[in-house]
Amino acid sequence: MNKRLQWFPYINGFVLIGVGLLMLIPFLNILAGSFSSGQAILQGKVTIFPVNFTLDNYASVLRNAAIWQSFGITVWVTVAGTLVSLLFTAMMGYGLSKEQLRGRAVIMILIIITIVFPAPLIPTYLLIKSLGMLNSLNALIIPGLISAFNLIIMISFFRNIPEGLTEAATIDGCSEFKIFRVIVLPLSLPSLMTIGLFYAVGYWNGYMNAIMYLRDPDLYTLQVKLRQLIVESDAGSMVQGMQLSVEGIKMATIIVATVPVLLIYPMIQKHFIKGALLGSVKG
């Protein structure tokens, strides 16, 4: 029995590596197609390696002004939304981590209810309309300003901070806001990086809110533009007589929309893993 258990980590690792490689195949196929000629794509010769290597697909995408405009809007929404969401989530999480807060139990119940029973689509739309946020980038940020899941992670993390630190600061005359800003936030960096990644990916990949609340094509985010290229075949207007295929343009656009997130994650992976562990276990 012990010998079988000794082999389990190796078998488990082998299976997980195999599953991971299978999940990479669709991405590698799109990546290879984005570097392949239109003729090779149309003939079905592209697998996970480029055929007739070319950069024309990317050149066509990067010359398109609409792509750059939607890219800039998406970056602004992601950065602004992530920073504001982190601030409000941290402040609310810090308050709810205090056992002596009046009405804390009721507020926590209401937060959990939003997880079990999400807000219906039509009432949410009517609310956004009544607030005058239709056809505004605020509609892409404010409705998802605080995630209940991320808030619970922050509450759990704040409850792990030793009370002696905050009590000593209170004795020294620090206000609650100063304690939060000077002591709590620096200690919360791993957890903030974790939920910050969640928020950033959510804002970057946001699609439904943009479809529902935006009417001006100049305000479309990169994901909406990508949808137009894939579903409505707008990529045909980008070919402009060159020996390119619509599929190659679509694949290049998908890679352009995906690469920023792939580049950010390795830089914060250390904080992400640490924050996920600290936020899930109460000491």
From the spread of the alpha carbons, the general shape counts as globular
- Can you identify the CATH superfamily of the largest domain? MetI-like
- Helical proportion, percent range: over 70%
What's the total number of strands? 0
Structural class, from secondary structure content?
Answer: mainly alpha
Proportion of residues in β-strands: under 5%
Q: Output the helix-strand order.
A: HHHHHHHHHHHHHH
Q: How many helices in DSSP terms? A: 14
> On the 0-100 scale, what is the average pLDDT?
82
Low-confidence parts: 279-283
CATH-defined architecture of the largest domain? Orthogonal Bundle
Note the gap between the termini: 34 Å
Q: How many separate domains make up the residues?
A: 2
Largest sheet descriptor: none
What is the C-alpha radius of gyration, as a whole number of Å?
24 Å
CATH topology tier name of the largest domain: MetI-like fold
Tell me the name of the CATH class of the largest domain. Answer: Mainly Alpha
Can you walk me through this structure?
- By secondary structure, this protein is mainly alpha-helical.
- The chain has two domains: 2-42; 63-280, Orthogonal Bundle (MetI-like fold).
- Helices cover 72% and strands 0% of the residues.
